[in-house]
Amino acid sequence: MAIPARIARQHKSRAPPRTLARFLLLLVLLLLLVVVVVVVVAMVISILSFSSSSSSSSYDRYKEYCKHDNHRYVYWGERIDCPGKHCDSCAGLGHQESSLRCALEEALFLRRVFVMPSRMCINPIHNKKGILRRRSNNGSSEDRWEANFCAMDSLYDIDLISRTVPVILDNSKAWYQILLKSTRLGKRGIAHVQGISRAELKEKCMYSDVLLINRTASPLAWFTECKDRANRSSVMLPYSFLPRMASRRLRDAAEKIEALLRDYDAVHVRRGDKMATRKDEFGVVRTLHPHLDRDTRPESIQRRIAKWIAPGRTIFIASNERTPGFFSPLSARYRLAYSSNFSEILDPVIENNYQLFIVERLVMSGAKTFVKTFREDENDLYLTDDPKKNNKNWQIPVYTADGEGT
What whole-number percentage of the chain has pLDDT above 70? Predict the structure, then answer.
């Protein structure tokens, strides 16, 4: 039977045209191609990022290494030199760095991973803002930053340290996993030690075979454990190690300041706490560094550095002296620069005096000529002949050039 022409035309109009079918097919293929490209690109980026991170950071390599069972750890406590104490009683950055370097040396000697405190205590005495401070209308040179501690990785580059000594922080997931594992291992899990030399820890299997060596029982400052520090040949990490390990943010700030200073010299003037005095039983004022006040005054500094630094040179001065304009007399002979001249660089970065000193230390190390306050090494240039370490001999301060006390 024949189909009426009108019905045939209606049936024909409902059939999808070939062009539409082709368009839909091409659209599906295009979407599939996009998905494939996205997946391939993601895989390539993942591979490249893994390769880059594993080759550039030994810390990342260490974390991969930690998946195995042949690593051991050494733990000195959650606070440097502050076991069971408040931060107010902690030593300054210099002492804490000596202790931290000692602990790192032991980890290196024992071939163990060092469990580093995630925070460093800041003694309020060493946290005054000094010449770099945000002063209000009623502010004073005694203003302090509020924090009494700071994050360790805000001071040091943990990845950079780990290239020499593998390090994990004591607030990391890895540390809690180690503690759990040490409890499961029983006697082989942890050894609590006190007064044991690092040689014994390495040679005796009762210590060398345990997962974790715990030194927190010692009431002494960490650096006292480095018994052979006077023998320089036995020091595995030099004094310059930690200064070179500054965090990336602090290194960047120092590099910007150095770029602005260009060709410059530097003088570190330690006054403040080093000039502390006390009266003896007869009421006579005495101090541990009798010539320091005299030798670190502008007129004495100028006479001392004249043979090392030519007139007209730019001198970057870092000091804990808080008297405004104290070093101004030196400007008659030299161009002077301080941290306060670079507040635009430092204000967004600096949160405490330890960070400030680390930046200043980096800047001073980049100077053409660097003059220290005290002599620390044989080739040092220094302002005073007083020894830096003097804990017992309290003497009458000397202010005259001929050495007579006044």
Answer: 76
d(CA 247, CA 160): 9
353 and 330 within one domain:
yes
Q: Which of the two residues, 27 and 161, has the higher pLDDT score?
A: 161
The residue segments making up the domain with residue 177 are: 59-244
In a domain, 78, yes or no: yes
The CATH number given to whatever domain includes residue 329 is 3.40.50
Q: What is the pTM of this model?
A: 0.78
| Residue 351 resides in a domain | yes
CB 143 within 8 A of CB 127: no
Identify each DSSP E strand in 225-313 by its residue range: 265-269, 277-279, 285-287
309 class by beta-carbon count within 10 Å (0-12 exposed, 13-18 middle, 19+ buried): buried
Domain total for the chain? 2
Same domain, 226 and 371: no
For residue range 203-230, list pLDDT tens digits in order: 999 999 999 999 887 777 787 777 555 5
pLDDT band per the 50, 70, 90 thresholds, residue 188: very high
Burial category of 253 from C-beta neighbours within 10 Å (exposed 0-12, middle 13-18, buried 19 and up): buried
Dump pLDDT digits (tens) for 109-157: 999 999 999 999 887 776 666 544 444 444 444 555 556 889 999 999 9
Task: Confirm whether 387 is domain-assigned.
Answer: no
AA letter at 127: N
* String of DSSP letters for 303-341: HHHTTTS-TT-EEEEEE---STTTTGGGGGTSEEE-GGG
Decide if 25 is inside a domain.
no
Q: Helices (H) and strands (E) in the chain — how many of each? A: 15, 14
- Which residues make beta-bridge pairs with 73? 113, 212
